[in-house]
Amino acid sequence: MPIVVRLDVMLAKRKVRSNALAAAIGITQTNLSLLKSGKVTGVRFETLAAICDYLDCQPGDILEYAPAEGSREDLKRAG
Questions:
Q1: Mean pLDDT in the chain?
Q2: Which residues belong to any copy of the HTH cro/C1-type domain (predicted)?
Q3: What is the H or E stretch that residue 65 is in?
Q4: Distance separating alpha carbons of residues 57 and 13, to the nearest angstrom
Q5: In the chain, where are the structural domains located?
Q6: What angle do CA 11, 14, 41 make, to 5 degrees?
């Protein structure tokens, strides 16, 4: 998937533990762990906003677009 979750990096920069973030924003530690590992296919904007508010960061600090090599060429051919 071309979207990379960098939440673990931001947690380390802010010296925040996952369980503290989960409790503060009202999600389970399991769901936060799935989000950190990138094993989710979506995230609610409300959850993303709560994470950004707690960590004092922007969504771009947590999410990164990293397309696979040749992906633009593949899209051009398909179109």
A1: 90
A2: 20-62
A3: strand 63-65
A4: 11
A5: 3-78
A6: 25
Distance CA 16, CA 57 (A): 13
Phi first, then psi: give them for residue 70, nearest 5 degrees.
80, 0
Instruction: Give the Cα separation of 75 and 56 in Å (integer).
Output: 36
63: amino acid identity, one letter:
L
| Cα–Cα dist 17/15, whole Å | 7
Question: What is the CATH number assigned to the segment(s) 3-78?
Answer: 1.10.260.40
Secondary structure of residue 58 in the 3-state scheme: coil
The string of pLDDT tens digits covering residues 58-72 is 999 999 999 877 666
Structure tokens at 15: 């010296």
End-to-end CA separation in angstroms for the chain:
20
Q: What is the mean pLDDT of residues 18-28?
A: 97
